[in-house]
Design brief:
The protein has about 425 residues and is α/β, with parallel strands linked by helices. It folds into two domains: about 1-30 and about 200-250, no CATH class; about 30-185 and about 255-400, Alkaline Phosphatase, subunit A (3-Layer(aba) Sandwich), CATH 3.40.720. It has twelve helices and eleven strands. An eight-stranded mixed sheet has the order 7-6-8-1-9-10-5-11, sandwiched between helices. The model is unreliable at about 1-5, about 20-40 and about 200-230 (pLDDT under 50).
């Protein structure tokens, strides 16, 4: 790369690489000392961005309104993979069937946020921050857990976002490493070398070629010092990340060769490395199927196939470590029960969740099902929310992570006690 890079240009580039200085700027170290153990319990949150149609993922077998309201996109009874006499899976989710039979896979119905918004961005923020309707909360629910449970044994890889921009649930005061796609590639050394040129041994950064008034320059200089100090540590940690992944390159089979599949493979490799990974987040996009959604085949089916194959490969890869690992699959809201005129579904309300591993009460479907009759639907069109997503979060923290959320952890809400774990 040629030419001179300014301070502003460097800051923009550092952000693109995933170098987040939020912890340093708050007076916190960006990354803590190593101290992980192989027995660490982990939670992996997969967020299906776009509002996934859960009603075509878990199909009610005995509800006659399903076929009536979805004549074009509904999954026919001959294609559904039955779980029991009441519920069945989309045929592309077949890789999850053995996990259900081994009681390691737990579907939840009618979950979601009580807030009425159908805005993707608002709903995603409300779920990530664990505070529906409260736009003042800017610490994600997992970031709050990390802050509240932090101790002397915190380590470099305690929490990780397997993407350039941290998932909302991981944003906040506690420093979390973001891993951009460039660093996941085998030839990522050149990318890290390029950014490392701008960090001197004395902590100084290449001088700016831009002019500005004294106050602006002072502010930029302070920001630059923060980014240099945190960036030096972050690049060193990203190099260690690449070393860990490289050593485990031959481990893990069956993952699709996609961004999502690679992200899941790397999370499994970090868990098995013994570095003490507790929390990982990965967003999976393109679930906003307003048109041409398809039934057993089509755009949603392709995404579901990738999701299922990746989850099954992840479970197989972890082996016994799956007992200490919990995967949550969720989305910001569901879709309309009635298909639209474009062969798709529109923004809805209630949805569902999948829990995998970690001692869940698998082999059954839990949640309060309300049926698909119009008078049982939210506003006459959507699945209602009968299980608040914060109740699921609280059960995960309490029963899987052995963490009792303090009062106020979920602003203005006292979670109900759910029994999701055996």
């Amino acid at each position: 790369m040629k030419g001179k890079l300014s301070r502003r240009g460097f800051i923009r580039g550092a952000t693109a690489l995933g170098i987040a200085a939020q912890g340093q700027a708050m007076g916190l170290p960006l990354l803590q000392k190593r101290g992980g153990t192989e027995s660490t319990r982990s939670v992996v949150v997969i967020f299906l961005r776009g509002g996934a149609d859960f009603l075509n993922m878990l199909i009610p077998l005995r509800d006659r309104y399903y076929e009536l309201k979805r004549p074009g996109i509904g999954i026919g009874p001959e294609e559904v993979l039955p779980l029991d006499s009441h519920w069945g899976l989309h045929p592309t989710l077949q890789p999850l069937l053995p996990l259900y039979k081994s009681k390691q896979f737990l579907p939840l119905v009618n979950t979601g946020s009580p807030h009425p918004t159908r805005s993707h961005f608002d709903a995603q923020d409300f779920m990530g921050y664990g505070a529906p309707g409260d736009r003042t909360v800017r610490n994600g629910w997992l970031n709050r857990y990390l802050s509240e449970s932090a101790g002397m044994q915190s380590n470099d890889f305690r929490a990780i976002g397997m993407q350039r921009l941290l998932p909302t649930s991981l944003r906040g005061l506690y420093p979390v490493l973001a891993v951009p796609d460039e660093v996941k590639k085998k030839r990522s050394k050149d990318v890290l070398d390029y950014f490392e040129k701008f960090y001197g041994a004395d902590g100084e950064q290449a001088s700016s070629d831009e002019e500005g008034d004294g106050m602006d320059m002072d502010r930029e200089r302070e920001e630059g010092v923060d980014i240099v100090q945190s960036g030096k540590v972050t690049i060193e940690t990203l190099r260690r990340y690449r070393e860990i992944i490289s050593r485990a390159e031959s481990q893990g089979e069956g993952y699709p060769n996609t961004r999502f599949g690679t992200g899941m493979r790397h999370i499994a490799q970090l868990i098995l490395s013994g570095e003490g990974l507790e929390v990982a987040g990965l967003d999976y996009g393109a679930w906003d199927h307003h048109a041409n959604q398809g039934a057993s085949d089509g755009s949603q089916a392709r995404s579901l196939r990738e999701l299922a194959v990746s989850l099954a490969a992840f479970a197989q890869h972890l082996g016994e470590a799956l007992d200490q690992t919990l995967v949550i699959v969720m989305t910001e809201f569901g879709r309309t029960v009635m298909e639209n005129g474009s062969g798709g579904t529109d923004h809805g309300h209630g949805s569902g969740m999948f829990l995998l591993g970690g001692g869940v009460r698998g082999g059954t479907v839990l949640g309060e099902w309300s049926g698909l009759a119009t008078d049982r639907l939210y506003q006459g069109r959507d699945l209602p929310v009968t299980t608040d997503f914060r109740d699921v979060y609280n059960a995960v923290l309490r029963d899987h992570m052995d963490f009792k959320a303090p009062k106020g952890f979920f602003p203005d809400y006292k979670p109900k006690r759910l029994k999701l774990f055996s």
